[in-house]
Specification:
Strand content: under 5%
Structural class: mainly alpha
Largest sheet: none
Distance between the termini: 24 Å
Shape: elongated
């Protein structure tokens, strides 16, 4: 007849042993992962692969590595690396300080927020700088057009025009130094324009004044009317289609844009921009062009050109890192199994032998189940479980290890060579299989076994409490 309480106790004992070994494996894996910086290296390789795409050209590979290295030197990413560096440096100093020096090159962040990545990449590609230069240029062109048109009006006050021009120069300089935003700078220009109009008011209701007011009103409608003002603001920001065309080497418009930049920004600045663009790997250029067109479609009603591109870069990075994370988890799972098998071999954790001992040794089984129940009731997280299992192991002698007693129980009479080679091979096959099963179990992780332990203990507690071997012995003696 099936003895369900006994089976539950054996299962709980086996799960508890797997939990103990998994906790040990997790500590070792975390130390190895931290010291060798697998997460950090995988992240950097994933970013390089993201930028490089399918290209295998040596020049593209060099460009990509140089770009990623520069990204990692950015202060934003360096600040993320600070905590990682402190953690790893402590371990490195502890383990390898007698043999080598620890420096900044030993560390890298294992995680980069998508917003930090997007902002850093845009900075490295000089896109915000290009956008700001573009707007500054447009602002200066606006100033020139305004002064030129106002200067052609008959009867304009030359001193007032000179003051207005000086005010615009101050506003332009403040915007160039990023003291004020483009929108606020345009509003300041509009305010100064209204002051200029007030300074040019002479005798009202005269034909000359009416003609002057008409011409001023026409200029105001062109530049500072509410509807035209919004159009002007949008035109003065870097259009993402313009950026995409500038990046696209195959686009015939690119040469015209470069020539325009030479005329408007000066040949030196235009050459610097062109040189910066040549440093971008082709695959990354294609991605940014596609994202720029997508971002431009998203901002049909919102003036957020570079900001929207940044958001598109964030989504692009997140999606890529999700795939990279899947690859890392698969690799980590493979390593976890190898580590689990190594631990199973190192401590001789043979699953078949453990089950056999738990099914035949009532005292051992009861002790393990009792301690497992206490841990499950008192702990809510793995840190607590780790502390409690250390205390529990002082009271329990688990059926693992290479000591003589455990080997005798595991191998039995087969430990003697005179029992025959075939019998030893057969037993060795079962022992190795037991190690493999234990290795697979350990690789499943401590959180899995802790959760499963709780479920089995809850099932056990819903039924009648099984009679322990000591209680059985007491009943027999009384009878």
């Amino acid at each position: 007849m099936l003895n369900l309480p006994l089976i539950l106790d054996i299962a709980i004992g086996l799960i508890f042993i797997y939990l103990v070994l998994s906790l040990f494996a997790s500590e070792i894996q975390e130390i190895i992962t931290t010291l060798l910086q697998w997460r950090a290296k995988h992240l950097k390789n994933s970013i390089e692969h993201l930028f490089l795409g399918t290209s295998k050209e040596e020049e593209d590979i060099i460009q990509t590595k140089a770009l990623v290295d520069n990204l990692y030197k950015n202060p934003l990413i360096k600040s993320i690396n600070h905590q990682s560096k402190d953690k790893i440096t402590g371990l490195l100093k502890l383990i390898i300080s007698p043999f080598s020096k620890v420096n900044d090159q030993n560390t890298a962040p294992s995680y980069i927020p998508c917003k930090t990545f997007a902002v850093t990449l845009l900075e490295e590609l000089k896109i915000p700088t290009l956008s700001h230069r573009f707007s500054c240029l447009k602002f200066k062109k606006l100033q020139e057009k305004l002064i030129m048109r106002l200067g052609k009006i008959e009867g304009v006050d030359e001193k007032a025009l000179e003051n207005f021009n000086k005010n615009l120069e101050d506003i332009s300089k403040d915007f160039d130094n990023k003291k004020y935003s483009l929108e606020l700078s345009l509003l300041r220009a509009k305010s100064r324009f209204n002051e200029f109009i007030a300074d040019n008011q002479s005798s009202p209701n005269t034909e000359k004044q009416e003609l002057f007011d008409q011409k001023i009103a026409a200029i105001k409608n062109i530049f500072f009317d509410e509807k035209e003002f919004n159009i002007l603001y949008k035109e003065m920001k870097l259009n993402l289609i313009y950026l995409a065309q500038l990046l696209d080497a195959k686009n015939h418009v690119k040469d015209k844009i470069i020539n325009d930049l030479k005329e408007e920004l000066g040949e030196d600045i235009a050459k610097k921009i062109e040189a910066e663009l040549t440093k971008i790997p082709p695959s990354l250029k294609d991605s940014i062009i596609a994202l720029a067109y997508r971002a431009q479609a998203e901002i049909a009603t919102v003036e957020e050109d570079v900001e929207q591109l940044s958001k598109e870069l964030e989504v692009w990075f997140d999606n890529s890192m999700e795939r990279a994370s899947g690859v890392y988890k698969r690799n980590a799972k493979g390593f976890a199994f190898l580590l689990g098998f190594f631990i199973a071999f190192a401590v001789n954790a043979d699953s078949f032998h453990i089950i056999n001992r738990l099914s035949t040794d009532g005292a051992l089984r009861s002790t393990i189940v009792e301690n497992a129940s206490v841990i499950e009731r008192s702990c809510q997280d793995l840190d607590c479980v780790q502390e409690q299992t250390k205390l529990a192991l002082e009271k329990i002698s688990l059926p693992i290890g290479w000591d003589q007693n455990n080997l005798q129980a595991q191998w039995g009479s087969n430990l003697e060579l005179n029992t025959g080679i075939l019998s030893l091979i057969k037993k060795a096959f079962f022992v190795i299989s037991g190690w493999i099963i234990s290795g697979v179990a350990i690789s499943m992780g401590s959180s899995f076994w802790f959760e499963l332990l709780g479920k089995f203990i809850n099932v056990r507690n819903t039924g009648a409490k099984p009679v322990s071997s000591s209680e059985n012995a007491e009943k027999k003696s009384n009878n």
